[in-house]
């Protein structure tokens, strides 16, 4: 009879031990899932900031490109070049000779 009581108590102890392990494993899974969720959220926020910064850099570069193209158009305009040539004392040639290649 003593063995039967001990066997029942041992079975209950094993069942209780397994239940504690099962709860512990579930809590661990929930904790790991929460940590992964938080990490992914932080990562997506960081990537969002990087995208915003890249878009601002792109906007500044486009504005700078527009300014440089405007300056290039001004510096290569015939009226500007004629004025600069006159400042340097250059004159328009009187006789222009065109050479044909190949003939």
What do these coordinates show?
The chain is mostly helical and 103 residues long. It has one domain. The N and C termini lie far apart (126 Å). This is Cell division protein FtsL. Keywords: Membrane, Transmembrane, Transmembrane helix. It comes from Desulfofervidus auxilii.
Mean pLDDT: 87
Return residue spans where pLDDT drops below 50 for at least 5 consecutive residues.
Answer: none
Beta strands, count: 0
SSE ordering:
HH
Q: State the major sheet.
A: none
Pairing-aware structural class of the strands and helices? mainly alpha
Number of domains: 1
Shape, please? rod-shaped
For the terminal residues, how far apart are their CA atoms?
A: 126 Å
Transmembrane segments: 20-40
Protein name: Cell division protein FtsL
Organism: Desulfofervidus auxilii
Keywords: Membrane, Transmembrane, Transmembrane helix
Topology:
Blueprint: H1 2-75, H2 78-87
Notable traits:
103 residues; mainly alpha; 2 helices; rod-shaped; Cell division protein FtsL; transmembrane; membrane
Quick overview of this protein structure:
Keywords: Membrane, Transmembrane, Transmembrane helix. The chain is built from two helices and no strands.
